[in-house]
């Protein structure tokens, strides 16, 4: 055979081009699972609306939980993988439609989470001074879309706070509000957040559970931490801890519930110490109305009973708790992305093992993982298993020929986005933001201060680019 006829080495198999929408834990674990499998070579574009990765690890995990937030370092390894490209500052539905994205890659995995709050649906819910936990958490973690004016107006002058819900987010909120400025100083909270919290004269935080301690959804480590605050005491009414036979059975069968109960029983012996903030956990208490004219002044609370199936119902017996600030921490729900189906009741995208269902039928090449797939449950690590399940489904579709690597052509997604007028923030740009946050922290002797405005985040990128030019 002459040299001209030599076909040379076989060309490598085409890469499976995947866009992952949402660079929070679910998206990052999806990218990681794609790069770890050996069945097909991949190229992953990990897209986020924000110019920063990590989703709820950055804007959800409480800033006073530095060990939990350190999972960023582990997640960063997936971002650093050569087959993964971080594409921040790009909103699917605005900069590119779902259909355009789908046409640009071989498969799309939506991992955009559940960013909306659930409503209480009671009178007075919309009064000034009533905040969704999502709004407060966004503010204290420095989310660039946080509604600073509303949150700071609600917080100003607040002495009595009622937090509705007994999940881990409710505990985060209660803990952050009851901490002293010195306890919060080492966090990466923006300076205006530290200042506003230091200026809020919070004396009493009451956390309301509509069911009993046996049904609370917080976990023991998070609960215990409430008892370790520098200048706050936790109080529990011993009568709330008396269990009926059904609750006793539940506690006996559930290790978390039984450990929680042991912690609560210890606190039930506490009394308030003069001059210290109190955090009171009240069970069998559901809010029926927020009181006030121009802003919240109190919460009308109804005593409940819980039946053998764990369902709460009102007894008609009500009391009023004074409150200057009410934080509704009753769960998150997923929002709609134009062109993507959503089950409005569950706040999730209908799916089968991660395969998006349209009209009950699998939609080739479209997948979901994380909270938008299963709802807002579990801890960060839960998303690892969840993402692997979705990637296994995607690979099964590749093996079955439903998804074909290379079928989307060669156009580069970032080039397409730039042509559409978008300004994608890539990994080196995120590194510039990261460095700017560390530098800002250093000006006040802190390890990092979160940049909380779009302008400052994007300016950090531009400044770094100008320096290297
Ligand atoms: P969650 O655990 O589902 O808690 C929601 C709470 O709201 C429950 O106590 C629920 O009570 C209550 N609730 C719902 N509707 C209500 C209503 N109409 N009136 C009164 N109360 C109502 O959700 P979350 O706290 O938002 O947390 C979301 C997820 O993130 C969870 O998986 C959580 O563990 C996780 N997370 C983990 C950490 C951590 O590990 N440190 C921190 C934050 C969040 P019922 O049970 O009676 O419905």
UniProtKB/TrEMBL annotation:
Broad EC category: oxidoreductase
Domain of life the protein comes from: Bacteria
Gene3D superfamilies: FAD/NAD(P)-binding domain, NAD(P)-binding Rossmann-like Domain
Residue span(s) of domain FAD/NAD(P)-binding: 17-182
Residues where FAD binds: 26, 56, 92, 371
EC identifiers of the protein: 1.18.1.2
Reaction(s) catalysed by this chain's protein: 2 reduced [2Fe-2S]-[ferredoxin] + NADP(+) + H(+) = 2 oxidized [2Fe-2S]-[ferredoxin] + NADPH
Cofactor(s) needed for function: FAD
A Pfam family per the record: Pyr_redox_2
Keyword annotations: FAD, Flavoprotein, NADP, Oxidoreductase
InterPro entries assigned to the protein according to its UniProt record, in alphabetical order: FAD/NAD-bd_sf, FAD/NAD-binding_dom, Ferredox_Rdtase, Ferredox_Rdtase_adrenod
Binding site residues for NADP(+): 210-211, 222, 378
Gene Ontology MF terms in the entry: ferredoxin-NADP+ reductase activity
Protein family according to the UniProt entry: Belongs to the ferredoxin--NADP reductase type 1 family.
Protein name: ferredoxin--NADP(+) reductase
UniProt organism field: Geodermatophilus siccatus
Organism lineage: Bacteria, Bacillati, Actinomycetota, Actinomycetes, Geodermatophilales
